[in-house]
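Help! Submission page says 'invalid entity' but I think these are all valid:
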Amino acid sequence: MIVEIGHFALILALAVACLQTVLPIVGAHKRWNAWMAVAEPAALIQAGLLAVAFAALTYAFVTSDFSVRLVTANSHTLKPTIYKVSGVWGNHEGSMLLWCFILAFFGALVAVFGGNLPDGLRARVLGVQASIGVAFLSFLIFTSNPFVRLDVPPMNGRDLNPLLQDPGLAFHPPFLYLGYVGLSMSFSFAVAALIEGRVDAAWGRWVRPWTLLAWLTLTVGIALGSWWAYYELGWGGFWFWDPVENASFMPWLISVALLHSAIVVEKREALKSWTLLLAILAFGFSLIGAFIVRSGVLTSVHAFANDPERGVYLLALTGIFMGGALLLFAMRASAIQSVGVFGTVSRESALVLNNVLLAVAALVVFVGTVWPLVAELAFTRKVSVGPPFFDASFTPFFMALAVILPFGAVMPWKRARAGRTVRAVWLAAVCAFGIAAFIWAIGTGQTMLGPVGALLGSWVILGAVADLWARTGQRHSGRLRRAIRLPRSDWGRVVAHAGLGITMIGISLLLAWEVEDIRIAREGEAFHAGRYELTLASVNKVQGPNYHSTMAEVRVARNGREVAVLRPERRIYPVAGVPTTEAAIDNGVFRDVYLVIGDPQDGGGWALRTYIKPFANWIWAGAIIMALGGALSLSDRRFRVAAGARRQTMHVAAK
Amino acid sequence: MIFRTVLLLFLAGTAWAVEPDEVLDDAALESRAREISKGLRCMICRNESIDESDAALARDLRLLVRERIANGESDEEVVAFVVERYGEYVLLNPRRDGINLVLWAAAPILLLAGLVAAGTFLVRRRRSAKPDALTAVEKARLAELMDE
């Protein structure tokens, strides 16, 4: 019964979304206030209905209702409750329902917090947002309905893929979707602005928090996925340039560009049409990502040809929204005039360069991702494009970005002086070179990757400190007080930039200094890996809630002193019939000790792999710090003041 | 990433990437073998090199690479042999020839185009950066203010 309520709510949500698309947009065009006023309640109702649908599906999973086909295919009674819940979005249908729910949720947020928006703009934004909802809801209902029942329910389910039964991966998709779908908000604002033919500083201020929110959740989502790959896949890789990863990375790159160009619109009323284009493209890449992931076209052209329904629908959907928005852009962009003027050496110019580098980097990733498909279909040449290509083609862009970042951050708007800019950051540069020299000295004979990465990373971090220093004026007395009183957006910028530097240091030092040891070890045997002494103490059979495990106990010591006892496992999930490795990791600030146990060997003993991974945690710590910077910026007073203005008007209206 | 794990499901044997019994005794030869392995695709996996893969086929290829290295072949000869056997698809680092040149040229060309576009934009802005002359209404208003 509850499942049917969910099903009904889903269909009703589609009907509401249809109304929410047509009435407000027509109303805004004709200036009919009553029609425009439909937008807000409709947005709230649509989100409410989808919340009901989502809750109903979750209920079916938690209570293991195997008469629902989706539950049978992806759940099992013995599974821990948290993974029953995460099983809701651990499959195609459920994840698309989550996608639709988030889409409507963002619409509802605009209805609640958008009181300061002009009526026409708000109605149009919600209308455009609802049109995306119509497209995805009909995709969900007609091609991948999660509520379909089975005629004969089985006694138990087929279990969720054991690799997905993991806290890192349980929360990776929701964050990723918040990010993907969050970018639909910027898209809706851009299309609404194009329909109105008006973009001003206020528009820049309204669109920025939504972009920030989408970007920061996307950052967290990507970091979670990368961290999961690191500890779960059994050899500590953290980024593979896999098409599915690239699908999330392209919108991330474009949203970073959008964040920066929207500042220029807000502060200086320049780069307006470029910002609109980025807002359209950011969501466009989200749609392309959804197409790549959901259609499986890049995994195998044949799998796609065998079951083309979903892929074709998503491709058409991407084509319609991108084609329509870009056409609108081509027709209306000339009407949008930028008024702010600026010199060639200025913060605006630095941000233009930032945007060029980020946008081109995203395009390069795109070209590399789709190239195997293009080469096969158009030139009948079957090629692979793997990490070597992306490393070579993509890395220079981020190196260039790192070089210009601290300069750009300390430049003033409008017109900057080169001399003054250099004076603000020279000390940071000197220190960064010092750190790089130190890294080079202790890593003698190894690649230049370590020193160069450390140079750029510390330059970005110290540049952020220099930025903070410059922002707090010339006098030393009271600097701390002034620093605390700086706007949160200044702090957000400094923190996010420093996070980027931390990630860069983590990636380069990990790749430069990693130590690997592969061996056969017998119980009681001791060996060395890097500067650590390890002893395989014992190997035991252990029974888990829904798996059998072979668990080793390894003592890790350094200079004769025990540092950690690690228990790597091999698990077998009997229901799905799948083995997984559970690496044991001793996390540290400067290194991880990473252990994986393999097969028992014919002559006795076990295959054992040990990795010493220097600075590994810096990669994700940096990403989380970037997201934290985004959150700080999001809490800036100017966004809250706008919210306060709304409360005031409501108060007046209540009188 | 989810898809790669789904694929792992079907492929997961009992092996996990490079096994201790595969490792060559000569460290220099072994590190060459590792470098070559990182550039060769596991044919039945999704975007994994044979160095990372757990599939039995990847293990066979790893052993093949090591065998040929131990026989004194150069890196290029080993790779050429594998490509001849499995086709160009096996190379994770696409060759720089024919239509693939478009792929390799994409980054520099796009960057150049982006910089030229941005440069033109900045120069044109600078030219139009001179403030517009006052309109007649503004001039009148200014005169009015100056008189006060």
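Support: the input was valid. A stray whitespace character was the problem, and the output above is from the cleaned input. Residues 1-15 of chain B have pLDDT under 50 and may be disordered.
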